[in-house]
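We give its fold:
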Amino acid sequence: MEFQEIYAKHADRYDQLVNAEDVDRHLLPALQAVTPLRDESVLEVGVGRAASPGSSSRR
């Protein structure tokens, strides 16, 4: 299955999968302890599937 199909047809299932990587929800509070993220842009460069910025972009 190509990534375009995953994002277009299975985005909700993919989101569940990548959110399981931070199941205890420690990543966002750790990032916010370093710097406030509200109204900020996040640039992710080469860290795999880009799951982490997705979780912070919803805030």
In short: The chain is about 55% helix and 0% strand. The radius of gyration is 13 Å.
